[in-house]
Amino acid sequence: MSRRCELTGINRQIGHKVSHSNIKTKRSFEPNLVNVTLQSDALGQNYKLRITAAALRSVDHRGGLDQFLLKASEAELSTRAAKIRRDLKKKLAETAAA
User: Fold this and answer.
1) Within a domain: residue 6?
2) CA separation for the pair 30, 47 (Å, rounded)
């Protein structure tokens, strides 16, 4: 399983650990990933996702998974999240047409 957020696309960064004597050695900065279950109101389903803690705050701030996915670009979403987004748009289009 990759260390990548499924909603924002944030992955690990590479940098230096700098000692007191200013010796630089490579290290990686891992994202703070958490396993969460988010509910889609329009689809009426729960989805298990692995997202960063910052993305979880953004989901709460935007008002839920549905609103977050509608505002997010397809390029930064994982394949699972992009499929949820397409299903959500299809469902909303059906309810608007009816």
Assistant:
1) no
2) 23
Q: What is the distance between the alpha carbons of residues 54 and 17, in angstroms, rounded to a whole number?
A: 24
Among 58, 38, 59, 45, smallest CA distance to 91 is for: 45
Full residue range of the structural domain in which residue 59 is found: 13-97
Number of domains in the chain: 1
**pTM of the predicted protein model:** 0.86
Q: Which residues of 10-28 are buried (b: 16+ CB within 10 A; e: fewer)?
A: beeeeeeeeeeeeeeeeee
Are residues 34 and 51 in contact, defined by beta-carbon separation less than 8 angstroms?
A: yes
For 39-63, the pLDDT digits (tens) are 999 999 999 999 999 999 999 999 9
Pair type for strands 24-29 and 45-52: unpaired
> What CATH number corresponds to the domain at position 85?
2.30.170.40
